[in-house]
Amino acid sequence: MDYLFHIVPVVAVGLQITLKIFIITIVLSLPLGILMAIGRISKIAILRKAMYAYIYVMRGTPLMLQILFIYYGLPFIIDGLKLPAFPAAIIAFVLNYAAYFAEIFRGGIQSIDRGQYEGAKVLGMTYVQTMRRIILPQVIKRVLPPVSNETINLLKDTSLVYILAMNDILRITRSIVQRDFDTTAFLVAAVFYLFFTFILTKVFGYLEKRYAVYDE
Fold it and tell me: How many other C-beta atoms are found inside a 10 Å radius of the C-beta of residue 100?
């Protein structure tokens, strides 16, 4: 028991990196995903095709490969550009998850009846006003379940920064196990992940119930 109380604070140190990556990625990738979704269904062919190609590439290649490319590959393409580990990780996570959120929001936007666009046009609303006041509020309600799933996946995917030698939960946990030849640290790390997954599940569950009230 003494050993458990000793390693818990040590593993908890890794939460700083894990939560920073998680929060920054969510804050940046969600609005970027919405913009990409709008571009994905745009009437401008070049923009629509560009968004399709980007989303296809980001969803079709592993996030780990993207992290490695940004950290190790960019210096070969752009001479002298060597990003520190944390910014490289943030860029990779934001660009990757924005693509996933874009497809989620695209599906939500296209599920809205076209008559609502026409009604807004009759009222004199611009496209931006229609999206902001009428379409997106409905879309957010409809996409909460898939956004919830991706958010939980993001929490777990933060462990991938281990490959950049960043001291997240996973890296610290492994160093403890290798040092002490005891797997208890893995159980502690699992509890941390499960705890935050529980919180996210409850938060999204609350949001879904709150938005469901408007359907009654």
Answer: 21
Per residue in 156-172, pLDDT (tens digit) is 999 999 899 888 998 99
Q: Say if pTM beats, i.e. exceeds, 0.70.
A: yes
Within a 10 A sphere around the Cβ of 182, how many other Cβ atoms? 12
Q: Which residues of 138-165 are buried (b: 16+ CB within 10 A; e: fewer)?
A: bbbbbbbebbbebbbebbebbbbbbebe
